[in-house]
Amino acid sequence: MSDDPYKTLGVAKDASKAEISKAYRKLAKELHPDLNPGDRDAEERFKKLSAAYQLLKDPEKRKRYDNGEIDASGAEKPQQRYYREYADAGEAGRYHSTAGFQDFADVSDIFADLVGRRDGARGSRTAMRARGPDIHYRMEVAFLEAVNGAKRRITMPDGKTIDLTIPAGTRNESVLRLKGKGHPGLGGGPSGDALVEIAVLPHHLFRRKGDDILIDLPITLDEAVLGGKVEVPTVSGRVILTIPPGVSSGRVMRLKGKGVKATGRPAGDHLVRLSIAMPQEIDPELEAFARKWRDDHAYDPRGNLKSTL
Q1: Which of 55, 52, 34 has its CA nearest to residue 43?
Q2: Comparing C-alpha atoms, which of 178, 174, 177, 169 is closest to residue 199?
Q3: How far is CA 235 from CA 144, 148, 170, 244, 271, in A?
Q4: Sign of the torsion angle spanned by Cα atoms 210, 216, 222, 225
Q5: pLDDT band of 257, cuts 50, 70, 90
Q6: Shortest CA distance to 203 belongs to which of 138, 273, 141?
Q7: Residue 209: how many CB atoms within 10 A of its CB?
Q8: What is the pLDDT of residues 113-131, one digit of tens each?
Q9: What is the model's pLDDT at position 87?
Q10: In the 8-state DSSP scheme, what is residue 26?
């Protein structure tokens, strides 16, 4: 895999941010260490892939890389333009000054910048110190893990494992930052961070709107007419809901405080939308009752719609 981040991700240099993210996610699924246990080559390629994505997803870092100011790892590049200015100056200007040999001291300072920075004493140099690149990681979590909180163990590109706490109420596409868990710094600089993007998987019953949880609950015809008590699943367990007599499909019942409970925010509610479910087969007794009801108690539930057409 090339050290050029564009080639590493397989995108053109004018690729959009969306194209870069799409390419990264596709390759990350193929190369992740969890899917390739013991494959050192895949692990190394995943490490380079993560570094390339972290660089190109950041507009400022990408611009600096394109301008030749930093390398593919995000480290500062030595600035060599001073030498070129001298070399391209022509016979009249190249290494020429009316100050005798003073310019040669300046040139030596310039070349010193190629390998390090002076610390104040002539001839003493210190290595370039820079913060390490961040590592970007995308992790899928179950709906209830994101709502109620969980602990997950993830494998980083270098093979190390990290125990990650997913806070209760974590939203889809939120990013958790693990301080100092990224690539090591340069010249003793601090390590970068690990940025974990959370992808919350859908649930077969629950939907989320802010910190409220929504669910559709089927009820029987007799429960709609007579009312009753029914069991309702919530994100924190099952509760009993009292249905008043005479409810219609679409009625929303609110279970206060039974939604998402995130630290620092008021607890959300659990919203139950009722839906009257007819029996799979209409038996003669129910059919006869309905016909008599129609004859004796006819009503028009769509009357208010006619005036709007």
Answers
A1: 34
A2: 174
A3: 7, 8, 14, 23, 11
A4: positive
A5: very high
A6: 141
A7: 11
A8: 433 444 444 444 455 788 8
A9: 40
A10: H
List Cα–Cα distances, 70 to 1, 30, 60, 214, in angstroms: 19, 28, 11, 49
Phi, psi of 100 (to 5 degrees): 65, -130
pLDDT band at 82, cuts 50/70/90? very low
End-to-end, the C-alpha distance of the chain in Å comes to 65
Higher pLDDT, 68 or 242: 242
Q: Which helix (H) or strand (E) holds 229?
A: strand 228-234
Cα-based torsion angle of the residue sequence 84, 86, 90, 91 in order, rounded to the nearest 10 degrees: -140
Sorted by where each starts, the structural domains of the chain and their CATH numbers stand as 81-115 (no CATH), 134-202 (2.60.260.20), 207-298 (2.60.260.20)
Q: Is the pLDDT of residue 145 over 90?
A: yes
Structure tokens at 134: 């961040």
Q: What burial class does residue 234 get, using C-beta atoms within 10 Å of its C-beta: 0-12 exposed, 13-18 middle, 19+ buried?
A: middle
pTM of the predicted structure, to 2 decimals = 0.55
Rounded Cα distance between 57 and 221, Å, is 55
Show the tokens assigned to 279.
């029996």
**Tokens for 149?**
């909180």
Contact (Cβ atoms closer than 8 angstroms) between residue 116 and residue 110: no
Residue type, 114: L
Q: What is the DSSP string of 270-295?
A: EEEEEEE---SS--HHHHHHHHHHHH
Rounded Cα–Cα distance for residues 80 and 254 (Å): 68
Rounded to 5 degrees, what are φ and ψ at 54?
A: -60, -35
